[in-house]
Design a protein that fits this description.
single chain; 11 strands; two-stranded antiparallel sheet; about 20% helix
Length: about 170
């Protein structure tokens, strides 16, 4: 027997790759409030990390920048980077999600992207993006063209995370 179910008008999109960004923007254009949960500290998924994309060998971050910009500045969309859904409870059309957000340790509103904190960081490791060629510090920008353009800290190699009194990036 058909029955009515109250539904929430707040939407949750898991993943801020091309599909997630498209879904979030479409929902927001339809008047919905949208939360986008992305595990990485950036939006654009793996596609945005590529230098060139088929068929025209266009710069991926250049190609996706208008969509990413709209996503990050849309008044109905809240993007939670460095986050993951840890629990979903509820019933059809009325779910509650618990989201865990890792500390970024860099203030998104205060950072101007100057790179001084990156240069000051003494903890280094080989850069996985340029295998065997270069190195990166614990405080780094994941790749050129990343949005939001704010450094992130690799806690596995950060001296402070391993018990040192290092505060060079502060």
């Amino acid at each position: 027997k058909p029955h009515r179910v109250a539904v929430s008008v707040i939407m949750l999109v898991v993943g801020a790759g091309v599909a997630g960004m498209s879904a979030a923007l479409t929902l927001a254009q339809k008047g919905r409030r949208v939360f986008v949960v992305e595990k990485e500290p950036w939006v654009g998924g793996m596609t945005v990390t590529y230098e060139d994309v088929f068929p025209g060998l266009e710069c991926a971050s250049c190609m996706l920048e208008p969509m990413i910009d709209e996503l990050l500045h849309h008044d109905r969309i809240e993007v939670l980077t460095g986050s993951e859904v840890i629990e979903v409870l509820g019933t059809r059309g009325n779910y509650t999600a618990r989201v865990r957000t890792r500390a970024r340790s860099v203030d998104l509103d205060s950072c101007i992207g100057c790179g001084v904190c990156i240069e000051a960081c003494p903890a280094k490791q080989p850069d996985p993006q340029v295998t065997g060629v270069g190195e990166r510090s614990a405080m780094h920008v994941p790749f050129a063209g990343v949005l939001p353009n704010v450094p992130t800290i690799d806690r596995e190699i950060c001296l402070r995370s391993s018990g040192s009194d290092c505060d060079a990036c502060v």
